[in-house]
Design goal:
Blueprint: H1 2-28, E1 35-40, H2 42-51, H3 60-74, E2 82-85, E3 90-95, H4 100-119, H5 121-130, H6 134-152, H7 154-166, H8 200-206, H9 214-218, H10 233-240, H11 246-267, H12 269-286, H13 292-305, H14 321-336, H15 338-347, H16 350-357, H17 360-365, E4 370-375, E5 381-387, H18 390-398, E6 409-414, E7 420-424, H19 426-429, H20 435-449, E8 453-458, E9 464-469
Parallel strand pairs: 1-3, 7-8
Antiparallel strand pairs: 2-3, 4-5, 6-7, 8-9
């Protein structure tokens, strides 16, 4: 009975604080869709954090992640304060066992996230494509997959989910969620300039005597598939796999749609967490309605959230996105003003944010450096400072964010018999594949492609390697 009363009291108090914070945030210039707050048990919050959504398609990999997260939490290495799902309305989940001061901070923190997702162009673009009610949509997808489990059995459905989730990072954001199939006519290679149609010298040059235009040359040419190297593996397999059934293609497209939803969360993590941290600190500081003791407890929580490392005397190889983003935003607002900061929040992602606004003085203040990793005998790893160069520091921070942190693999060709040729673009990041993991992924893909597959790549030493699978 006491727990129930405490829960109701905290909910009522947070609702009151939430309205005050929202009024302050709007007065300061933040824009956001309504926010629905919900206090939930810590066990449910753990599931939400691991699955990425309150209800999501069932798969064993989420259970593995849950066990890892649970162990980290029990060992004191992580604490979950909130999970926010942008949309209209935004959905914010808070842990009911957390202290009132912690949840008061989170209530203000969420408004920074809500403003960011409402105003950032990348977030808006993805939301417009996937819809503004992702929680309900995810539940519908989970229901459809449960129907497939009932109809086709766990083994078959799990094999499709294995392949689709293994390829989850491999989408082409800039080609859009709703793509049309390739033209039946041959297409230009990506990056080939179109013939001039504006008259003048360029137009005359494109039509020299004895020469045909590109259209005249390719109009009746048989179309290759793909007509250009294709990065969107989920879309390509769903569209062109020779032997997939419709329900299998639907699962691939469901996973692809969720990847589009999660992409801005991944690509703007430093900006987004830093922006929310800046605003919760500012709103707490200006909130004269908070009791003094609660304010002090909330500020102590803020200090632990944006602390660079667990121990101020230790160097860390892990970047805390809350801390890095918070410090950069503070620097921008102090140097350029809030209006400029809001323009950056609208236009940038982490790549442009870090490259443009993490300068040398700030990097020195943050004690940032780039490092190198060396494997020693006995499976020992040695780390050493490699450089204090600002460009190298920026790129080492950003390197894990390219392509969802996954190697970039493209479809190069699909032959008449359905054989698939894949190529790893290792020149982009200079890294070879983990061949054991790559082989496992190819095993998954083979289960749905059902024709020969060949992957050209390099290993960790930069040596050319070819992985092949046959039915």
């Amino acid at each position: 009975m006491t727990d129930c009363c405490n829960h109701e009291h905290q909910h009522e108090t947070l609702s009151r604080y939430g309205k005050e914070f929202e009024a302050m945030a709007r007065e300061a210039g933040l824009q956001f869709h309504p926010v629905d707050y919900e206090l939930v048990p810590g066990s449910f919050m753990m599931e939400v954090a691991v699955y990425g959504l309150p209800v999501r398609m069932p798969h064993w990999s989420f259970g593995v992640r849950y066990i890892y997260q649970h162990i980290q939490h029990r060992m004191g290495h992580s604490k979950i304060f909130e999970v926010v799902f942008p949309g209209n309305p935004n959905r914010a989940y808070l842990v009911e066992e957390n202290a009132l001061a912690e949840n008061a901070l989170v209530t203000a923190h969420v408004l920074g996230h809500a403003d960011f997702s409402r105003c950032n162009e990348l977030f808006v673009s993805m939301q417009e494509q996937v819809g503004w009610n992702v929680v309900e949509q995810a539940a519908e997808r989970a229901h459809r997959i449960q129907g497939a489990l009932d109809t086709h059995g766990q083994e078959r459905v799990e094999a499709v989910l294995d392949a689709a989730l293994a390829l989850e990072p491999h989408v082409h954001i800039h080609r859009g969620l709703h793509r049309q199939p390739y033209s039946s006519r041959a297409e230009k290679q990506e990056g080939t300039p179109a013939p001039s149609s504006g008259g003048g010298f360029g137009d005359k040059y494109a039509r020299l005597p004895g020469e045909n235009t590109l259209e005249e040359t390719t109009e009746h040419s048989p179309a290759s598939c793909p007509p250009h190297p294709e990065n969107d593996l989920l879309w390509f397999i769903a569209r062109y796999a020779p032997d997939m059934e419709d329900w299998e293609r639907d699962i691939f497209l469901d996973v692809r749609e969720e990847s589009f939803y999660f992409y801005p969360v991944f690509a703007c993590q430093i900006m987004n967490e830093g922006w929310a941290s800046y605003w919760h600190a500012r709103l707490l500081r200006e909130a004269d309605f908070l009791p003094h003791e609660l304010y002090l407890d909330a500020i102590r929580t803020h200090s632990s959230v944006v602390r660079p490392f667990g121990d101020e005397q230790k160097l860390s190889l892990q970047i805390n996105p809350y801390h890095l983003g918070f410090v950069i935003w503070e620097h921008i607002i102090e140097t350029h003003g809030l209006e400029k900061a809001m323009e950056i929040r609208r236009q940038d992602d982490d790549f442009s944010f870090v490259r443009n606004y993490l300068d040398e003085p700030l990097a020195r203040e943050l004690k940032l450096f780039s490092y190198k990793r060396k494997e020693l005998a006995g499976r020992r790893i040695q780390y050493s400072i490699d450089s204090m160069d600002i460009d190298r520091i920026r790129e080492q921070i950003l390197a894990p964010k390219f392509n969802f942190g996954a190697p970039r693999v493209r479809v190069l060709d699909m032959t008449m018999d359905g054989s698939l040729l894949l190529g790893h673009e290792h020149a982009i990041d200079g890294r070879g594949l983990d061949l054991k993991r790559a082989a496992r992924v190819l095993d998954y893909v083979q289960e749905v492609w059902r024709r020969p597959i060949r992957l050209e790549t390099i290993d960790g030493d930069g040596e050319p390697r070819v992985l092949e699978r046959t039915p």
